[in-house]
Amino acid sequence: MPIHHAVLSLLSRGPSHGYELKGAFETAVGPQWGPLNIGHLYQILDRLSRDGMVSSQRHAQAVKPDRVVYEITETGRAELRRWLGEASPRSGGFRDDFFLKVTAAARSGDADTVRTVLTHQRTYLMRELRNLDGLRRKAADPVVALLLSAATRHVEADLSFVDDADRALLRTPGALPAAPAVPAARGELSAGA
Question: Structure pTM?
């Protein structure tokens, strides 16, 4: 999720300062996203300001440093409308660490290695589903519940891929390539070599 668009969305409701935006973001997306790093948020606000999408004003405070209040500009509103009006492609394409592990395990030609990789991933994903289910039951905000539902569906799709890999690689005769021959270590070569 492009966080800068989420920040523009929050500012479209009215001016705000950094810590208010941090709290609003965390409340809006719920526990699935995790805490937003305040330093990262200020980097985003600086960039949005440089790009003319937000403006800022300093407000003096008696005891604390000046508070900087940010407000969305018309350019920022136009960017937010543009972003909301287009489809969202997968953020990482189809590059996936787990797929690379499955590929490596399959290329080893060792069914036990494939089984271990698939079992560990299945166990991890089942734990994720239980965690998401618990979070979804506690979610009072319907938008947060929707986010948790989407996360659950992604995990379920990942579990389906584990099942597909199990069927394709372990239950289909001849699916795994022959295990590569292990080269002899130096000094173990036969005398005739």
Answer: 0.65
